[in-house]
Structures are given as structure tokens and as C-alpha cells.
Amino acid sequence: MPAKIILNPYSNRWRARERWPEAQRLLASLGYEFEWVETEGPGHGIELAREAVAQGFDPIIAAGGDGAISEVVNGLVGEGEIARATLGILPLGSANDYAYQLGIPTNDLEAACRLLVEAKSIRTVDLGRGNQYVFVNDFIIGLGAIANQEAAKIQRIKGEMRYVLGAMKAILKAKWPTVGARWEGGALEKRPILMGYIAIGYRTGGVYYFSPYAQHDDGLLDFLVAEARSRLEVFRLLPSTMKGTHIHARGVYYLQSPWVELESEDPLPLLVDGEIKEDFPTRVQARVLPGALRVISGETPGPRPINLTQTSVKRDA
Fold this sequence. Notes:
Blueprint lengths: L2 E5 L7 H15 L4 E5 L5 H11 L5 E5 L1 H12 L9 E5 L5 H5 L7 H10 L2 E10 L2 E3 L2 E5 H11 L6 H14 L4 E6 L2 E14 L21 E7 L3 H7 L14 E6 L1 E6 L5 E3 L2 E2 L6 E15 L20
Parallel strand pairs: 1-2, 1-3, 3-4
Antiparallel strand pairs: 5-6, 5-15, 7-9, 7-13, 8-9, 8-12, 9-10, 10-11, 12-15, 13-14
Helix pairs in contact: 1-5, 2-3, 6-7
């Protein structure tokens, strides 16, 4: 049976649609058999992935950015605990954080197609579930979500710089919510925070390493919460998030747990795998889904700014 490709044409502001004919040509030249469908709007990728599973397709390939991947995976998992088909990825988005972390070439479409076709490396990795959403990379509340929302409004600048400018705009206008947290073995009393970050992966927005020690297959969520501070202090802290050294800063708590719960006195802006969600919850319940996904990957993960051979620093409250 051929593979099923689910294309999100809007990824990278319609750049995915522009690049799709080239991807088709490359896959055909490699003798790859596939059928493809195109999403028509937000959430459609979930529906198409469910249909592909029911029809027996395997692998099922997300062609687009991190949001497109996330939708496909939500369709593969549904209400269960494990994906019902192997995931493939054609990185046609802007940041392509998930593909980068899995060692899939993000700037060489031919190499990415060849890796997909050859499927020499298939990893078993964790997923997360936060409230009703399954996530492959991260689940963000507060400043990080607002930064992405601001980045989406920037039209003339593309790529990673758009996310940096989005963060700067968000810092100037964001209001800090009052949030408390619980996790296995610990808790943080309610206080104003900049953001809460729950992750499976270690990179977001193309340049940020909020969870620099995260592993895709350790059966744990990496959780970061940063206490509120002045806007000037936030601007000073921002560059360190690109190096992963922010975890040592005052008022930043970074830990690992199989589950995390957050309660807020204020509605929380929510970003899941790079996509802003319409609901603004006051309560978040997140847990890891260990070994829930098989994904065609590269043999070597994308580099991170820290050395994993060093002792990881985990700070709790």
C-alpha cells in the first residue's frame, strides 16, 4: 500500500504549496509510491489523519511545519495512548523545530525526501497530552504564546528573526498571569509568572532552547516556569534562552516530571506546537505518553547548545 501524505499548503505562509511540486518530483524520482491530500483549514489535518489510519495507510506523512505535524499526530493518536501508524515528515514550515531535533534535513528538500524514502532510522519517541491536545514538541502558556501570536502578524520578515521580533513585541505588551504549579514530588505556590513551558523537545521558534536537557524518549516532561520581573529584566534574560543558560537565572524553575498541573487566576494564552489555540484555560493538566510514536528520523539529532555529558541542572521550588 502506498504512503499517505497530508500537505498543509499554508505552512510557511503558503511556501509549502510553492515547494510541493518539487517534493512530488523528488519522491517520484526515488520511486516512492504515495497518495496525497491537502488540508483546507485549521484542524483538517486531524480529520485527514484519522481517515488515513482507518484506510490502513502506513506511514502517514505530514508535509508542512510543526503545526501540520501536530495535527497529523493528533489524528494518529485520537483519544488513545499511542499512534496507530508510523509518522513521516517533509519539513516545509518556517522553524521546523521537530524535524530539526529528529535529524531530518530542514534546508535540503532532496535530502529530506531521500531520508523519508529510505527510512533507515525509525525512532520510538514520547508524546505529551495537555488538556485535550496531544503535542509532539511543546505546550506553552503566557509570554511564549503571545510571542508567537505577535510573530504571526509580522509580514515582511520571514524565518527565525520573525520569532525574535515577536518575542520583543510580546514583552512590551504582555500581562503576567498569576499561576501555581504541581508536579510529581513538588509544587509552586501561585505567583505572577512570565510563562510556563511544558516540553517533549528541546528547541522552539527556531532559536529558543527553553528546555535544553529534554529527551524525546525518557518518559518525562521537561517543565519550566519563570517568575515575573520587569520588562527590562525580561529583555536581558531573552538572549540566554537561545543558549539554554536561562535555567540558572533567578526565579527560573526547571525540572522533569511525568505530569504537570497548572492553575491560574487569569485566562492563559495557549500555544501548542507553534499553533495558537482559541481556548484560554485557567487549568492545565499535562502528562507524558511514553513511547507513543514511531517516526522516520535522521540518524543524528540536531545539535543543542548544551553538552549532555555534563550534569544536567534541575531546579525545583
